[in-house]
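Attaching the record inline, Q. Sequence:
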Amino acid sequence: MTTPITTHCKRGLMLLALISAGACAAPVPPAKQALVDKVLKLWNPDNIGQQMLQAPVADAVQQARAMLQGRAVPEKRDAAMNDIVGEAKQFMAEATPITKGSADKLIPTTIAPLLAERYTEEELKQLIAILESPVKKKFEAMLPEMQKTLGEGVAADTRAVIDPKLQGLKEKIGLRLRAAVTP
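Structure, as predicted:
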């Protein structure tokens, strides 16, 4: 004998199954899937995890450097920073394969379907042409030089105004740190 709860559960499960079946994307034609795969290969989205790790690791190293500045004699500070940088590099070496593996596992079920759904075959071909473009590669190769050149120019242009303010900030932070650690 079925109870109203059992019947309700069965109906709910059937409804969930129907919704899930409707949510499944239509199969992607092989030619389009090949284009999606090529876009993914050219784009390298599996590096996203590594990029996500780099910012907090760099911040941690920078914070350690700031904490040691003025609080430790140069020899101890330098030794500690060498150890900290070594630990950060070791962390990245260990964590990068984990994030890359996760990305490699998730890309086919997350990113690939989005590309297949939102781009036509012609648009995917255009995207591939952009990603393979020699002009794009030339531009990307120039990015470090352009960033360095601009950075040097901004530093030279603003040094007279920014350096005194930066020095003042460092002094204020140093005073706050000393006050916080002084018993």
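Residues 1-23 have pLDDT under 50 and may be disordered. Helices lie at 4-23, 30-43, 48-68, 74-118, 121-132, 134-181.

More tomorrow.
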